[in-house]
UniProtKB/TrEMBL annotation:
The keyword Chloroplast does not apply. It catalyses: 3-dehydroquinate = 3-dehydroshikimate + H2O. This is 3-dehydroquinate dehydratase. Belongs to the type-II 3-dehydroquinase family. PROSITE patterns: DEHYDROQUINASE_II. It comes from the Bacteria. The keyword Lyase applies.
Length: 146
């Protein structure tokens, strides 16, 4: 089972960026925990963070033909703006899980619409980093480790 985890803009600042909203764990902490869990489940996990919309799109396009079975994506602010990321995900045939650290539904109105949700098979918000681990667990349960 090959899984791609994509982190969108500003998530490289995790741990120091508005910790009251996003927590004090760093992105490296989250990625390490994901890798550990993937390994234990027999899955191969790669992760990528980018502040650039086009780089996220390139990574989604690459996942169409490299055996990736599932994408776990926190598109961050692009969630609410990017038709291009939605289009790229629509061209990917595998499972897509959308993750948000914060509960976007109890925040500003502009965070309550997601383009990505039009494609996502599942959406997790408000569970902090646990949301990524739950997403990985769901993907492993759906696909098995092979
Ligand atoms: C976020 C929520 C978005 O609205 C915001 O722009 C982010 C992070 C989250 O994980 O809670 O950068 O996706």
């Amino acid at each position: 089972l090959k899984v791609l985890v994509l982190h969108g803009p500003n998530l490289n600042l995790l741990g120091t960026r508005q910790p009251e909203i996003y927590g004090s764990e760093t992105l490296a902490d989250v990625n390490r925990a994901l890798e550990r869990r993937a390994e234990a489940a027999g899955a191969v996990l790669t992760h990528r963070q980018s502040n650039h919309e086009g780089e996220l799109i390139d990574a989604i396009q690459a996942a169409r033909s490299d055996g990736t079975a599932a994408i776990i994506i926190n598109p961050a602010a692009y969630t609410h703006t990017s038709v291009a990321i939605l289009d790229a995900l629509n061209a990917f045939d595998g499972t897509v899980i959308e993750v948000h650290l914060s509960n976007v539904h109890k925040r500003e109105a502009f965070r309550q619409h997601s383009y990505v949700s039009l494609r996502a098979d599942g959406v997790i918000a408000g569970l902090g980093s646990q949301g990524y681990y739950a997403a990985l667990q769901a993907v492993v349960a759906e696909h098995g480790s092979a």
